[in-house]
Q: What sequence folds into this?
């Protein structure tokens, strides 16, 4: 994962939302569960800081790279990210609420910019979600 946004989302996915503990089988088998958890938490906080320090244009580029790397339909991606706001649960535990809100705001703006760019450059039928 070359960009902080991808790292942030990936690392948040390794966290158990009931306990706040991180788990990675490979790291846990090579080191201790505690050491792996601590290392992943540190990486998660660093990815958050790196994304937080990105310019708005860099954030837009990271979001586009993340989206295209998923291979998902852009219309579905934008719809889901606008409604579920998965980036809000990707914030590391113990983060200052003001910093979390700042990042959330930046990602909302980046998402709107990226969606606008996609709508301007793609035919409507390719951008739309497939019909059921």
A:
């Amino acid at each position: 994962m070359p960009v902080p946004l991808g790292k942030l989302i990936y690392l948040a996915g390794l966290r158990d939302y009931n306990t706040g503990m991180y788990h990675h089988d490979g790291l846990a088998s090579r080191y201790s569960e505690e050491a792996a958890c601590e290392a992943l938490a540190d990486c998660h906080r660093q990815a958050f800081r790196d994304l937080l320090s990105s310019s708005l244009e860099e954030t837009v580029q990271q979001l586009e790279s993340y989206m295209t790397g998923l291979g998902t339909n852009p219309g579905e991606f934008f719809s889901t990210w606008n409604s579920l706001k998965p980036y809000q649960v990707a914030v590391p535990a113990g983060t200052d609420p003001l910093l979390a809100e700042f990042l959330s705001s930046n990602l909302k703006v980046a998402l709107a910019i990226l969606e606008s760019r996609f709508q301007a450059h793609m035919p409507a039928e390719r951008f739309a979600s497939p019909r059921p």
Observations:
- The CA atoms of residues 4 and 49 lie 9 Å apart.
- The chain has one domain: 4-121.
- The chain has a mean pLDDT of 91.
